[in-house]
Amino acid sequence: MSKSQTASDAAQLEEALGRSIRGSGSDTWLVVRPNLYAVPCAGGYLLYSPLQGLVLLVRGGGIARLLLESDRTIAECLGGCELEGDTELLRRFDEDPVEQPVRFAETGWDFRPTQLMLSLTAACQLACDYCYIRGGDNPRNMPWEVAEAAIRFVAGNAKARGETNIRISFHGQGEPTAAWKLFRDAVMFAEMQASALGLDVSFSVVSNGLLTKEKVAFLRTHQFDVGLSLDGTKDSNDAQRPMRNGGSTYDRVVATMRMLREADMPISIRSTVTARNVDNMVPFVAAMKDDAGCSQVHFEPLCGVGRASHRDAEVQSVLPSFIKNFREAQVEGLRRGVDVTYSTARMDGLRTSFCGAYGANLNFCVSTEGLVSSCYEVLEASDPRAELFVYGRFNRETRDFELDHDRMQRLVELDVTSIGRCQDCFLKWNCGGDCIAKASLGGVANVVGDAPLERCGPSREIARDVLLKKIAVG
Fold it and tell me: Percent of the chain at pLDDT above 90?
């Protein structure tokens, strides 16, 4: 080959790379074909087709051929390359995806939710220094008529839709079990309402973990899924999640975990990671397994909202250490049989939205005041983000919910295909566009903007690990 030909080929490759490269710095990847990405990793490239769930590690010149020879099949371009993974999958890269994410615009929409999140109370025994909603600062309970109407609403929807189950979760502005009589009454009423309509009902609760034997027994009897919040081992947790009088919470939460374990109830732990406990993630995973037999730990980095609204510098500075320690915590989890997760690095399926705060499967979350929101983090009328997420309220005169259909339409039509920063991201169908409640902290316009979020880079970095692990284990 002549020098001029070699120079021409190099120039063509450079031009093709320029057209295909996305991201910046160490967080870069290539768009090599529609919905096919090449992600630098382990001295080669992860060739990733999210819509097909296919991934191979490619070394050699195959990626360059994919960029330059778009008329050839992927299998032809990668012939002779060093590949790692299930090479029998190679031919499938050229097939059309069997599964496509379904968007609201393609299906239409009939809003009859059968899942309900009740925020029964804004009371809380704790004073967590980062609480997104300042739980306990203004304690009040949901009027019974609101809880009753919400339960009747979802149960009636299930019956009308021919479904067999309703699901009710307790979460929101405070500790759900702090209003214990209201909590019990809501559970019993839901069961009676479901029985009258020939439905099953399932329950879940996210709790601060200050549960008594009586409460644990009730949760077991009614077959609750239980999620507890705990932030690291004793010193770091008690610094971040103290009682309102300043007392320790760690031992009481661990005692609750042991009671739940003795009751044969599966539990999951959610841990908020700050500069104080970021280097404590590995020993925390070990402690949760050893002290309470926990099999799932979910980590989320600090968000600058609520009581942490002044900690933006810490939010940004903690992310690099979060990535490093999350990786090590995952390894520790594998060793001990603990599933260690992070919300935006989910590679377990396809999604068009991060959660039900937007998209076709809109959440029905009811606040203590009877506001209806799609996001359990935005339940106060005073929250600037309420104009985006709050789409209804309880009418005491009609004893029914009034819904703002324009706001609902805006929420259900929003998905990952309309978020600018997601358009060419290799993670978009798995991440679903990330938490727009966090994105909207920078203004509602930031929800669909082109600028990446602080969590985008860390999410892609962790996703590389997950994809590489998928190749290793098959």
Answer: 73
Q: Is the dihedral of CA 117, 121, 125, 130 positive or negative?
A: positive
Q: Are 67 and 18 in contact (CB under 8 A)?
A: no
pTM of the predicted structure, to 2 decimals? 0.92
Q: What distance in Å separates the CA atoms of residue 449 and residue 268, rounded to the nearest whole number? A: 34
Parallel/antiparallel/unpaired status of strands 82-84 and 27-33: unpaired
* Contact call for residues 459 and 345 (beta carbons, < 8 A): yes
Read off the pLDDT of residues 338-364 as tens digits, 9 standing for 90 and up.
Answer: 999 999 888 888 899 999 999 888 999
Q: With bands split at pLDDT 50, 70 and 90, how would you rate the model's confidence at 10?
A: low
What are the chain's domains? 3-99 (no CATH), 113-394 (3.20.20.70)
- Residue-wise pLDDT tens digits, 293-308: 888 999 999 999 999 9
